[in-house]
Predict the structure.
Amino acid sequence: MMSGIKGKNTKPELQVRRLLHKRGFRFRLHRKDLAGKPDLVLPRYKAVLFVHGCFWHGHSCKYFRWPSSHPEFWRTKIGRNQSNDAAVMSALLLAGWRVAVVWECALRSKTDEELEETGDAISSWLKSDEISVVLPPRRR
């Protein structure tokens, strides 16, 4: 079953690519020479973007819930994904890259206007001096 899960060119990733391309940004995909093979690499801005699925990376949103079958397997798997994410982010930051994480819930079931707002937020971050950003931002 899990062999059918795509790792590249997922719907959320394609949405982010469309949003950025429409705003004039050009990027490379899945560069193997960078830690974690980021989904999008924008060398001009020294920035990388990861588009994370809420389930696979254990995001605390309405789209994530722990499976009831094989709970120990899933806790180990998702915990390992989260620790890998943290290690990759640290490695990229140490190498001088700026890192953005766009969660699936920032794109899923959104109106065109909400998607445009997400695209604007990514665009603003790319043009800023901020080192990292996570979309959607945590609610306080």
In short: The chain has a mean pLDDT of 93. Residues 96-140 form one domain. The radius of gyration is 15 Å.
